[in-house]
């Protein structure tokens, strides 16, 4: 097997991210970008890339780490996030499910068919709330090409077309308190993110979440990897096919604010508050 040239590979990674940022105007001069930093390879690469581009694109940056409360797993990711942020000179703000909602993900894992369901709802809520409080103009996430394709196909399979507005490298601002998300790694395959981390000796948290095997995403990921192995190029073809839909008008979603927490919501009571009330009726949280 031909040995990878580190300099060439790094240039490919940086140029791909740079082209996405420029082509889709992910960042405007003077903006404040908040990065969701889990300590995993994708979020770490996102922080590295953006820290390198700060002068070129003229923006400031802060990172946020969320501790969901997953025993034996999240603590290692948080340690990595702290080290990476410190090494790059980026301020890190830490939040947790326990402090915000009153429970750990481990406390409620048996209540759902997949723990990824409440985790996703609470993570998105807490990331957005914190980013808004920090005065962020954009919230950068580590979603790579594989993540995007998986999400697109899962929504397509469920005929959940309203979720299509969440796809693409940049989301529009549809509510004053909903911070638009950007995805600098949108055209970078997951395997290339892993190669980048190993090739550069970057200390990232490679372990998979112990709850991930219960999700539909895990099954979709395995299916797509097998398909890509048999027919190389399938993933990028799917992404390019989806990219063409940007030429059509996106579905307009009217957002108000949750009556309980005040966060942006299309419902009277947001999904996070609905889940919290249900959980409080089902569990006794130890003091």
From TrEMBL:
One of its GO terms (cellular component) is cytosolic tRNA wobble base thiouridylase complex. GO terms for molecular function: ATP binding; transferase activity; tRNA binding. Keywords: ATP-binding, Nucleotide-binding, Transferase. The keyword ATP-binding applies. Signal peptide: none annotated. Residues 32-166 form the tRNA(Ile)-lysidine/2-thiocytidine synthase N-terminal domain. One of its GO terms (biological process) is tRNA wobble position uridine thiolation. InterPro entries: CTU1-like_ATP-bd, Ncs6/Tuc1/Ctu1, Rossmann-like_a/b/a_fold, TilS/TtcA_N, tRNA_thiolation_TtcA_Ctu1. SUPFAM superfamilies: Adenine nucleotide alpha hydrolases-like. ATP binds at residues 36-38, 42, 66, 142, 147. It holds the Pfam family ATP_bind_3. This is tRNA(Ile)-lysidine/2-thiocytidine synthase N-terminal domain-containing protein. It comes from Methanobacterium paludis (strain DSM 25820 / JCM 18151 / SWAN1).
């Amino acid at each position: 097997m031909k040995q990878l040239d580190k300099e060439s590979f790094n240039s490919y990674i940086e140029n791909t991210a740079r082209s996405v940022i420029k082509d889709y105007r992910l960042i405007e001069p003077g903006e404040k970008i908040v990065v969701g930093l889990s300590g995993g390879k994708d979020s770490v690469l996102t922080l590295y890339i953006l820290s390198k581009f700060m002068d070129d694109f003229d923006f400031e940056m802060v990172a946020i780490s969320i501790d969901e409360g997953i025993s034996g797993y999240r603590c290692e990711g948080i340690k990595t996030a702290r080290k990476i942020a410190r090494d790059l000179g980026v301020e890190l703000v830490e939040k947790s499910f326990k402090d915000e909602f009153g429970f750990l993900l481990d406390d409620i894992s048996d209540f759902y068919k997949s723990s990824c369901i409440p985790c996703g709802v609470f993570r998105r809520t807490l990331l957005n709330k914190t980013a808004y409080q920090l005065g962020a103009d954009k919230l950068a996430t580590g979603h790579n090409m594989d993540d995007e394709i998986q999400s697109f196909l899962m929504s397509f399979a469920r005929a959940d077309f309203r979720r299509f507005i969440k796809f693409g490298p940049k989301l529009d601002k549809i509510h004053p308190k909903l911070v638009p998300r950007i995805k600098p790694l949108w055209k970078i395959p997951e395997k290339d993110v892993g190669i980048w981390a190993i090739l550069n000796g970057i200390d990232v948290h490679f372990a998979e979440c112990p709850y991930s095997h219960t999700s539909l995403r895990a099954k979709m990921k395995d299916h797509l990897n097998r398909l890509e192995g048999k027919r190389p190029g399938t993933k990028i073809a799917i992404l390019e096919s989806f990219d063409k839909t940007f030429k059509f008008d996106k579905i307009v979603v009217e957002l108000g604010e949750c009556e309980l927490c005040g966060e942006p919501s299309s419902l009277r009571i947001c999904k996070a508050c609905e889940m919290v009330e249900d959980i409080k009726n089902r569990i006794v949280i130890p003091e």
